[in-house]
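Hi there,

I know you've been waiting on this one. I reran it after we fixed the sequence typo, so this is the corrected version. Both the input and the resulting structure follow.
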Amino acid sequence: MSNKSLVSIIIPFYSGPEFLQEAVASALGQTNANIEVIVVDDCGPGQRAQTVLNSFSDSRLRLIVHEKNAGAAAARNTAGRAANGEFILPLDADDKLDPAYVETTLPYFENPKIGGVYTAVKMFGAEDSVYAPEWTVNGILTGEAGALVCVLYRKTLFDQLEGYDTRWRVGEDSDFYLRAVAKGWLFQRLEKPLYLYRKHEESVTFHHAAKSQMEMGQNLLRYHKQLCEQHMEQMIAYKDKRYWDLDGEYKHLHSEFHKLLALYDNLNEGLKKAQPLGLIGRIKRRIGLK
């Protein structure tokens, strides 16, 4: 695929103005410069995107403002319909792209069956780790897929699916993927972590992870009932495994806690019986030093 193909990087913005600048800078800083960046202000409670973006003078950057809050799916649809690119790359307003993201993923579209390309994810902020999302039907339905945060896909795919389903307040990426697969599209994963996912306390998913997972599960059953029925055995097996994994982790932590508690009690009792040798002397005595 020629690097002359225009890529539209779309960024829905609701909150976190301190992060939006970094997201936009990472989008404009792609080594493949043939991009446009579309920010959609979805009328969040804080600072407006226009104020945040005043420091940018790049003609490739556009801003669209919603009249009222409509949700992430609607904001992506607004940007997707306004996109001029042959490809679309959604980017969350608190995340960032590696400079080589577009340049690295674009060549894989030489295969006409490929609808989208995504990469492993580098977590940063409150967590430092790398994980590889598993964009498979079974992975999404069971929960093994991980967060589906970013994929470069064809604009024709967006048009064919008529964008994101706005009934999904969370998990709209998963629904988008499932409908794309149903149309026969393939997705390619690259193992290099080129998407930078910020983990922070202001994140909606950070505060409402359990509630979001429950809502997504309900939506999967409501809008993809037949798929859920076909994969029900795997879904139950995965949830059962997760339960016992968490149960094992809890028991281990509970055991370690009581070991520490017993050690504390022993040390405390020893200090009470010790002669007044001074703090340093008591510490040396406890650890066996003369």
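Quick highlight: The mean pLDDT is 85.

Best,
R. S.
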